[in-house]
Fold this protein.
Amino acid sequence: MKRLYVIVALLVATGLSAQTVTDIYTIQSQMDTTGASLWQDSVVTVEGVVSAGYGVTGSRNFFLEMRQGGPYSGVMVYVPASAGDFPVQLGESLRVTGTVSEYYGNTELSVQDTNNITRLGIVDPITPTEITCDYLDTASTTTVPWDSAEAYEGVLIKVNNVVVTEEMDANGNWQVSDGTGYVYVNNNYSYTPTLYDRLNVTGIVQTHYGLYKIRPRGDNDFEFLNPGISLAYASDAQVIDVVFKTNMDSNAEDPTKYVITPSITIDHVTLDSNDSTLVHIYTTDMVGGTEYTLTTSNLSDAYGQAINDTVTFYGGFTPIVTIQTDTVAGDTSGTYPTNWVGRTVTITGVVSANKDHFNYPFFFVQQGEVAFGGLQIWDPAGVFSPQDGDSVIIVGQLTEYNGATEMLNLVYGVTVSTGHTVNPINVNTGDLIPGAGFTAEGYEGVLVKVDSAQVTDPGTGGDFVIDDGTGGVTVTNTDHITYTPNAGDVLNVTGVLRYIGQLYPRGDNDIEVVGIEEKYLNPVKNFRVRTVGRKSLYFDITLNTAQSVEISVFNIAGARVYNRNFGKLSAGTHSFNLTSSLSRGVYFVNVRAGNRYMIGKAVLVR
């Protein structure tokens, strides 16, 4: 073990780690008794094929796997925002240089600069390694080795013919078994697991809260072996999309085989021309935001298997204003959480800020230029990426994140038309801060504009604070603007209020410098050197704003006889007696306050 560390250190010291390719298998299989890689903290270069993109286990993670697959063949790659953006696609061959680390029990390769990733071309996607559940079931007695689960961490695997033994909990965990052991699956996709569903599951193995779990990459990682309804949702104001677990045929186009309550009129039903698991039900009187129940009657799939199933969904378009204003009664958090948490709904609106404006994969949709009309959409899986001004229809699940209502786990997204304009709502800075209460909640997710707000805190190269006299709000997302804030700058700022108190401009066009306060142009309101009875010498200064002040005193011969740096003095008047440091004579007093220099003369007789 000691020899290994010496070799690794030598590689790093000589710079060979960026030139010599190390097998992922070697990094993963050489581990201690806890499963941590012995290559931890080493800089290495690996090659592999992308087996899972961003969003499966984190918004900045993707997975790389050696072509042969199998134990110890996969690793998680972490690309922090500071390293830059590096989009990837399944089946892409990459060479990656980074630092090996352990993150909550998962071995990962941390990339400090996207220039350390080289694209080698596109090859066939990784074929998942088929294993049985007992390889990941470390909690039970099994004939497989103790480290069998660790061997598949970061690897794309598939378990076949499993049965759902536990339905999904609030954190997206559900359990399956093939008779050899039990494994948790963690996903937030459209499929809602039901007890005794039988299916094949593909996904990346991740250590998650001390358990080895399967993390599917999307709906296509589920192969259903028994019939039923996976999901139903409104894909338009009067259209219901029903996703079945198995293939359907023309039998599914008979309107009499569907019962909807509360009762609405079914005009006709069609089987999707490209997806035989998808059926479209066209109605005439569906009400937006209303909860409906769909039940099948005498329906069978393409294999003749009977489908007797029931599913609930929310019809038509649910107004964003309804989602944002229907808040939990009696909540004392000050964040006004919505009562719609956990519901999968359909919204429509215009994109006010797309993903390109931010470091992370969220965007905003607005329904009218009104308070409570905006909503944040979180989409790390890349289901939908519309542009500013697109009119869209989106289906997803509602949640609360850091006090903000957002939609995630997107099921469906489509652009209806383009070229629309969302005009910001003019507000005061004080309307956007926690002290504004429900008023501020109304602008969460909404495109707003504040005029003639002064920079009161320029920060230190990142966020800064503006105030129009009604309260200071933080301007963030500054990586996407080139403007450098200066104290006293007067700005017009447009942006989306992502969280109460945090305004996100989308780019340089959202920042307009309209002036600077006079007191910042001239930091000194008044300055004088005075004597009392020509025996005592005083230096008085009145500052408009807090400034660093330094004073130097020179005699008639030009020699400096006194110097003092007072540091940063607060705004207001300050007076200093210099008599004890000086004898009789003529003196010149040189004062620097901020960026201003002043000279005074005094005669002292003692």
Summary: Helices lie at 2-14, 24-29, 148-151, 320-325, 438-442, 518-521.
